[in-house]
Amino acid sequence: MRRLLTLLIAAGAALVGLAPIASAAPDHHCTATGTTYTYVVLYTPGVPRFAAEAELRLDCGALVEYYPEIGVAVATSAAPDFADKLGQFRAYSGRKDVPAATLSSRSLEAALPAVDRSGEQWDMDLIKAKQANKVNEGSRRVLVGVLDSGVDPTHPEFAKSIDPADSAGCVTGKADPSVAAWSPTTIPHGTHVAGTIAAADDGNGVTGIAPGVRLASVKVVSDDGFIFPESAVCGFMWAGRHHFTVTNNSYFVDPGFYFCRNKPGDAAAYEAIRRAVAYSTGRGVLNVAAAGNEAMDIANPDHDTVRKQNPVDRNCAVLPAGLPDVVSVTAVGYNGTKSSYSDWGKVDVTAPGGDGKQVPPAGAGPACPLSTLPGGGYGSMCGTSMASPHAVGVTALLASTHPWASPAQLRGLLRAEATPVACPAATPTCTGPAGNNTYYGHGLVNALAAVQH
Q: What family is this protein classified in (predicted)?
């Protein structure tokens, strides 16, 4: 599942189902002549809801949700020319623009027993998380949002950390706080991410970096594995409105790997997500994202690996990792060097994501970080998806020890307390000094440093 920025799944369990959410129909003068798609539509921030709803109905659309703070509407329409009527720099449907491709397959096996497996967590050793846990496991005041495929609330590792009141399903673009809407169904990815951040320190299974903090599950990934602009907007708005401390975003927004702010369609989605991220940042949220698994320089895009016919340049960015307000994280394997698949270029810090080419010695665990899976299970996954929650866990510890820090200050602390990593010798794609280069940014995140200062 490249869009989820994960390469390997090695264990799994059964998931629960979700109920669909209905929306209002457009006015009677409109005739449904095509497939119904969901769109993000831009307005001037502050335009009232009734005005947006009236325009959408006039153009044969139905309002699903409206975010007046940022002037972004989520609408559905079966009219093939809906975006043309509104203007393609104002309206965009990700689903309508999905390339003819299928998701990568994944391997699922029986859930592994809940015995103490901390000895297999080499990733935690690499960033000194086990040492940090002895000093500070994180504060309940810190709320971490997992914007992903849902977090299993029945998993024993999350009995004390999941906060149902701050969790929601955002797949439709409108927040649904019901448990079914934010629980996983077909994809275990979000539960794995959550375990890295805050799995309980209870002597069973695995232990997260900051087991003392609270988690909010915000489901933005559809059952077929896509993350469309309306879902991301909803997720960031929910995070801002609920005053999350930090969010993890181990995905790229579909349907392509890049969005270009100067192209019709792309520009509307880019601006909608940029506004939502900026809103959440302004409400005290630090957003952290995986850089990507395309093994390329995302600071200098020259091709889109998903929408292959989509020309890209410096006006294009991976969303959300490529936005200025977002902390971007690359991956390293067991040896502490860049994972073979990891993107680089636009990077703040690096963290363990695993690599099948960097195999730990016998007894040290799998090459891919071990964490939680739905149904009470445990398994390993590789990817910058796994690196990002390591950075988020460390950020949660920083927020615990620096309770008044702003998002910008937390970002500065995360960078300043990282362990510098030098570029490999004779590697022209890695440029810059050990404390700030294109592969590792300011260095490997350091959990122990986060609780010592």
A: Belongs to the peptidase S8 family.
321 φ, ψ (degrees, to nearest 5)? -60, -30
Q: Supply 387's token pair.
A: 């690196």
- 91 with 162, same domain? no
- Clarify whether residues 251 and 343 are in a common domain: yes
Domains of the chain: total: 2
Q: How far apart are CA 121 and CA 204, in angstroms?
A: 13
Q: Is 84 a catalytic residue?
A: no
On whether both 89 and 195 belong to a single domain, the answer is no
Tell me what the mean pLDDT of segment 370-398 comes to: 97
Encode 195-215 in three state secondary structure.
HHHHCCCCCCECCCCCCCCEE
User: For this structure, is 385 an active site residue?
Assistant: yes
Candidate list 328, 380, 385, 388, residue with the active-site label: 385
Residue 148 tokens, joined: 């992903």
Q: Where a domain ends, among 80, 97, 114? A: 97
User: Is 409 found in the same domain as 329?
Assistant: yes
Q: Is the model's pTM score more than 0.85?
A: yes
Residue with tokens 């890049």: 258
| Residue range 12-54, pLDDT digits in tens | 333 222 233 334 444 557 876 789 999 999 999 999 999 999 9
- Take residue 52 and report the two structure tokens written for it: 């947006």
Q: What percent helix, strand, coil does the chain show, rounded to 5?
A: 25, 20, 55
Q: Tell me, what CATH number does 424's domain have?
A: 3.40.50.200
Q: Round to whole Å and give the CA distance between 244 and 277.
A: 12
pLDDT of residue 199: 98
Task: Give the torsion sign (CA, 116, 121, 124, 125).
Answer: positive
pLDDT for 433 beyond 50: yes
Report the first-to-last Cα separation within the chain, whole angstroms.
38
* Phi, psi for residue 110 in degrees, rounded to 5: -65, 145
Alpha helices (runs of H) in 175-320, residue ranges in sequence order: 179-182, 189-198, 229-241, 266-282
Domain C-terminal end among 48, 64, 97:
97
User: Annotated catalytic residue: which of 161, 166, 176, 189?
Assistant: 189
Q: Is 155 a catalytic residue?
A: no
pLDDT on residue 1: 56
Separation between Cα atoms, residue 70 and residue 273, nearest integer Å: 10
Residue tagged active-site, from 148, 343, 348, 355: 148
